[in-house]
Amino acid sequence: MSQAQGNLQGLKTSQTEALKRLFRRRVPPAQVITPELARAMGEIAVEMGRQVAVLLDRRGEVRFVLVGDDRKVDIPDLAAWRVGHRRLRGLRMIHVHLQGEALTDDDLNDLSGLRLDLIGAFTVDTQGLPRNLYLAHVNPDPQGKNPAIVLNAEDPHHPQLRFDVFLEDLEATLSSAPGGRDVKDPRERAVLVSVTTGRRDEAEDSLEELAGLADSNDLVVVDRILQRPRTIHPRYLLGTGKLAELTLRAMQREADVIIFDQELAPKQLDSVASATELKVIDRTQLILDIFARRAHSVDGKVQVELAQLRYSLPRLGLRQVAMSRLTGGIGGRGPGETRLEVDQRRARDRIRRLEDQLESLSRGRMERRKRRVEGEVPIISVVGYTNVGKSTLLNALTGSDTLAENRLFATLDTATRRLRFPKEREVLITDTVGFIRRLPPELMRAFRATLDELADADLLMHVADISHPQLEQQIAAVQTILMELELNTKPLLLVLNKCDRVDAEERDALCRRFGGLAVSALDRATLLPLLAAMEHCLWGEEGGPWQQPSGGPEHELDPEGNSAVDPASSVGDHPEAV
Description:
The protein has 578 residues and is of the alpha/beta class. The protein contains 15 helices and 19 strands.
C-alpha cells in the first residue's frame, strides 16, 4: 500500500492509518475533489495540527498524500511525471489550510513552477469540516503579467467547476497561444536568461549578443528574461519567484533549452535544471558547442575537445543518480570504484592524451612558422571581434572565397592567403578566429598555442564594425585579449569596416576618435587607402598610412574594381588555428 510522505514524525498509529485510507478515495473526472475526500482530509489535518495535501492524476486517483506543518507542505520530486511541449503535468494538488487563509504565494509558485493542472486549498472549521475552496491555474497567455490566474472561491460541498471541461479548454488555449512551435522547423527553441547586479544597458547588450550566439548555433530564441536583483540567489542565480515565471514562460513558448548569459556553478546548473525540468546551459557551454560544430581542422577539433573536457570535468557528478552506482566485477579498482570515479578518471586520461597530441601539433606549427620567418615574407594577421567582416575583407583583398557569413564565429579554422603588392612585394595575410567578450577561460587555455602565432606577425590588422552600437566596447575587448597575449606592443592598424552603413559625418568622427581607417569590404574602391596604409606600416612608404594615394598605376583598380593583387597566388588554408 502507498505511504504518506513528509512530516510524519510523532504521528499516532490511527493517524497513519487514516492517511493511508486517503489513497483509496476516487474522484470522478468532472470534479476537482469530492466532499467525502475533502472532509476526510480536513478531519485528519485538524487532529494532527498539520497541513494535509493530495496529488490526484486525471483519472481521479490519489497518487501522493503529503503531510506538512501548520502553515505549509513540501512537494516531493515529481520527475517521473514528465511534461511535454505546452502540456501540464497531469497532476492537481488539493490541500488543507488550517489558518483560514486563501492561496499563498508559495502555492502559486508551486503551481507555475511544477506546471500542475490546478492547485486548490480549502479552509476548515474546528471540527475539520471544509469551508471555502480556493483554486488557481496557470496563465495560458504568454504575455500575461501574472503567471497564475486565481478563480473565485467555491463551496467544497457543491463546486461549480467542471474539471474535465476546464482542463480541456485550458490545454487547448495553451496549444494555440501565439509563438507556438512550427512543426516544419526542427531547431531547438531557447529562452535566454540574464541575472546581474550591473547596469541594465550593459546586460541588455550582452543578452543581445547571447541571442546572436544562439542563432549561430541554429537555435530559435523564443523569449528573453532579464533580472537585476539586489543579491544573487546562491542556488538558482535568479529569485524563486522569477524561477517560477521562467518555468511557466518556457512551457508557454515550448522551449527546449534555457541559456544563461552568466556562467553557472555546477550546483546552480543542476538546481535550475531540476526545477524547470529542461536542458540548462550557460554562455560558456554555448560557445564551446559552436566551436565543436564549426571546427574542421585537426588542431581545431583537438583544442575544442580539450576545452570541453576541462569544462565538463567538475560537472560530471551532476548528471544522474546512476553515476553513484558501483562498478563491480573483475577489473574494478580497489574495493569498488564508482561510475562517477570511472568517468572522471577517463576524462583526465583523455585530457592528458589530448594535451600530448596538441603539443605534437604545436611542434609542427613551429616548423611552419620557422619556414615563414626564414622566407622573409611579411605576415599580416587579421584580428577583431567576431562577425565584424574579417573574412569578407580578406576575400575582397585577395580575391579568395573563404567562408563568410553574417553570424558569430562563422570562421574558426584559420585561412592564409598571399597578397601581392606592386614593386614585386608580397605578404601573407591570415584570417583568425573572432574574439568575444568574456571568452571562456577553457577556450583561451586550449587556443593559446594557436593565438601565440600572432607573435610572428609583422602587423596586426584590427578589424572593427564601425556601424555596431557597441563599437567602443568591442574594440576594448579585443585590446584586452591582445594584452593578455602580450601582443599589445605589436604594430597595429585599426580598420573600421562596414563604413557604407553610417553617414559620412559619423564615419569621419569615429575615425578621428579611434584613429582608424574606414573601409567597406563590399566596396573595393574604399580598399585603396587600406593598401597604402599596409605598405606604410610594413615598408615605411612616404605620405603616411591614412592619406589617399595619388592615383598612380600602383594602386589603380581594374575595370571590375579589383585592386592590384594576385588572387591566384593563394597559399591555401592552414590548420594552425581555429
